[in-house]
Amino acid sequence: MTQATQSQQRGIQITETALQQVKSLQQSQGKELCLRVGVRQGGCSGMSYTMDFENLSNVREDDEVFDYDGFKVVSDRRSLLYLYGLVLDYSNAMIGGGFQFTNPNANQTCGCGKSFSA
Length: 118
Fold this sequence. Notes:
The chain has 118 residues and is α+β, with helices and mostly antiparallel strands. Helix content is 18%, strand content 38%. The chain has helices at residues 16-29, 77-83; strands at residues 13-14, 33-41, 47-55, 64-68, 71-75, 87-91, 98-102, 108-109, 115-117.
């Protein structure tokens, strides 16, 4: 895992590699968007990670917003209960590549790394 960016004091951390990847994906959308990270019920282990771009105008007053060099990562407070301290990384490996979640709150993680139990 690459080292997380400087905003390591709280919430969701994102590595420089992941930040570069989401900025690249955001630019290909042609709009200024933020990244919403959350959880939902389901998946192999009981809860699944969610991650998608969203218009900045959809950010709610009670959302937590983390700024990474002008790029916003957003999470609702309910999800943040399960995600606090999460490190989002990215790998371009041919096998097992893509976005990876390292969650200190997870008691169990499924083999694909996209769901967990807390």
